Amino acid sequence: xxxxxxxxxxxxxxxxxxxxxxxxxxxxxxxxxxxxxxxxxxxxxxxxxxxxxxxxxxxxxxxxxxxxxxxxxxxxxxxxxxxxxxxxxxxxxxxxxxxxxxxxxxxxxxxxxxxxxxxxxxxxxxxxxxxxxxxxxxxxxxxxxxxxxxxxxxxxxxxxxxxxxxxxxxxxxxxxxxxx
Length: 180
Hints:
The chain has helices spanning 18-37, 48-57, 104-110, 159-173; strands at 41-45, 78-84, 90-101, 120-121, 124-125, 140-150.
């Protein structure tokens, strides 16, 4: 694999050129080869109820409401990666979804990054979050990643970094927007 991450060098405001697509695909293939050498298989999933059930089954505290269909409206521009070992056991997951926004700052402050109707507590609306550093310049189509989990026995094998890079690469390759 190259030292740099090819998805970082592609502007978010346009589709990939054929050359950029080829470089990115080569990078994805290199990661997949390393995962295969470690006897891991990658599956791109869109069943977010399945993600929530899986995270609950492993007692993960990382059940991000951004990826919970009971809390958020998930479009076709959302997916999660499932990493499976040679026994068919899920050993890692990581989710990503797109938003069309006027202001990332507003998405965060309102709580709509996490919940379709914003933040509530006991049925009452929670005051907007205070953000110290403005993110108003981030707008348009952006993505948000989360709900990463790696089985303890599979940790320290780079699955967290590989799944993060594969998520970002899948976003770029699929002509989805870039992460904020």
